[in-house]
Amino acid sequence: xxxxxxxxxxxxxxxxxxxxxxxxxxxxxxxxxxxxxxxxxxxxxxxxxxxxxxxxxxxxxxxxxxxxxxxxxxxxxxxxxxxxxxxxxxxxxxxxxxxxxxxxxxxxxxxxxxxxxxxxxxxxxxxxxxxxxxxxxxxxxxxxxxxxxxxxxxxxxxxxxxxxxxxxxxxxxxxxxxxxxxxxxxxxxxxxxxxxxxxxxxxxxxxxxxxxxxxxxxxxxxxxxxxxxxxxxxxxxxxxx
Length: 241
Ligand SMILES: C[S@@+](CC[C@H](N)C(=O)[O-])C[C@H]1O[C@@H](n2cnc3c(N)ncnc32)[C@H](O)[C@@H]1O
What we know:
This protein is an alpha/beta fold. The protein has 2 domains: about 150 residues, Alpha/beta knot (3-Layer(aba) Sandwich), CATH 3.40.1280; about 80 residues, Trp Operon Repressor, Chain A (Orthogonal Bundle), CATH 1.10.1270. The strands form 3 sheets. A 5-stranded parallel sheet has the order 2-1-6-5-7, with helices on both faces. The site of S-adenosylmethionine has 20 residues, from strand 5.
């Protein structure tokens, strides 16, 4: 998977050298190529932004430096603009994007980008949520991180993805490690029992309980096993939410 990023702050992407995601770059499973529109300015003062037509606050990124930048990319692939007005990212979108071999992520700044650039060059606008960031870079990092970790070979143990929240459309339940007692709180006895069947049942129960309490919307289109349906019915009758 090749990630191209159009950004006026390429240094922000230095953070990709930390953590498990960096394995993908080290092993050449993933690559990142940064393109700075400041290198494509032709205005007298070298600016990439200008005041909005019609008046108003802030500055708007001009279309030409961005179009010259994207045109300079040899393999551009699927073009994504980070935008608070886009489709909100979820696990399904990440999985679909992970099927592409090249993504170009365009990071806005200031008040945003001239609409004519968006019309001509963007395949999909995506948002990290209903709030405003000062730039698209942190959204692009979220996408690169989330996609990289599901690309085979990036994570040391591929099974660690299998039980993550949202994989089965449910939230994962609570997890524990040493010590057995912390602040007068004990690790649930069942997890120390060594009984795999009981542990699995407990995890299913906790996962359904947590999803019902925190994200009941996820249960609307989930396919559950007979056993899970029974547990959920039970939980629904008992839990005061
Ligand atoms: C300050 S924002 C511009 C917001 C714009 N004036 C509006 O109201 O829709 C600057 C840039 O940050 C990025 N950005 C801000 N919020 C975002 C979000 N929720 N998801 C993805 N990108 C976002 C976009 O690239 C945007 O062009």
